[in-house]
Amino acid sequence: MSRTVTLQSLDPRVSRLGIPTEQQPFEGVPEGSHLQTFEVFHQTKSGARHIHVGSVHAPNAEMAMVFAKEQYARRSECVNLWVVKTSEIITFSPEDADLFATTTEKTYRDASGYKVMQKILAWKQRLQQQAEQNSPSNSE
Amino acid sequence: MTEQYRAALEDLLFRMADDALIYGHRNSEWTGLAPLLEEDIAFSSIAQDKLGHALALYRMLHEMGHPDPDQLAFMRSEHQFRCCHLVELPTQDYAVALMRHALFDYAEHHRYELLEESSYAPLAALARKVRGEIKYHIFHASTWLRMLGVEGTDESRARMQAALDMLFPYALGIFEPTQQEETLRELGIFPGEGILREHWLEDVVPLLESAGYRVPEPSEVEPVVGGRHGYHTEHLQPLLEEMTAVFRIDPTAEW
Predict the structure, then answer these.
(1) Which of B101, B88, B173 is closest to B138 using CA atoms?
(2) In this structure, what CATH number is given to the domain that contains residue B57?
(3) pTM of the model
(4) Which residue ranges of chain B lie beneath pLDDT 50?
(5) What do you get for the CA distance between the two ends of chain A, in Å?
(6) Residue ranges making up the domain that contains A68
(7) Residue A135 within a domain
(8) Global ipTM
(9) Span A106-128, pLDDT tens digits
(10) Which range of residues forms the domain containing residue B176?
(11) Which of A60, A70, A77 to mutate: most B Cβ within 10 Å?
């Protein structure tokens, strides 16, 4: 004769659930039983751009809004939210990351490629020298 | 403030504060156990909002000379509570938790809406302050009602319908009148439970029907009452013992 022993916890809510201590081996979650995800964008003030803040699992867009509101607009300033199905976002494949690699010979495209810095430094130096010459401590 | 005004106001404040505290505590029992992580966060957050409402209302009572909010929440006996039976019921089934959430929070929504015009300024100010929070609570509730109703499965609809049938007489008990009903109206504090019940029915019945449920005919349902006069279900005392266990170890401790 077997008697089911249920899980006893310091948390009375858990003890009340009557969970058998002898569990069946976990079979895993069937394929396709997870909810889809939605990407969440929040807006901190009217007119500001929406910024991606994370994602939520939800069965549909409306529930995604319900969940996103509490998860991403509870603690910080927020005036609006967007939710977008993750599957509808168009993105590059990670294998195409090399598209974004800048080759080293392209420094002429960067602002640092222009030799203005030397001119600016020389001008600053000149200003400082003038200031030192005009200051009362030097005029004695 | 006249004695008459004070007595009527206290009656209303205790009913509202105790509803919010006990309902908030019951909903917090799902923290960590709700069916989805996202839902766990949302439902816990709603529970927290309710405790915030209870605190604001107990503070008003404290300013009128009652003990501080902790004492009011944790040190009163069962018969001193004025909550309705609906909020006391334990929920072993999430369908019951969600259906109660819808029934109760639509009543809260209409109650606070009526209170925006209250002659008691702090209560009118609180009503305006919590408007947005309660709007989210009913958005959450109505979305779930549809998800598990018209957009749900046979099982979800059956479980939600069973919850509705079981809870409806308790929900009508929210509007149990007290002896202060007339005075509250005459003094402009609150238009009364009768009017609140009308507003609630006008909103909740079409909402439930459009979400795919059969609503019992209200005039044929006997409301479950007693809570507003200190008579409670057998579930309140165990709840109070559990809720106050830590506080009672050392009621003078600073947290």
Answers:
(1) B101
(2) 1.20.1260.10
(3) 0.86
(4) none
(5) 110
(6) 35-89
(7) no
(8) 0.88
(9) 666 666 656 777 888 899 999 99
(10) 3-213+225-249
(11) A70
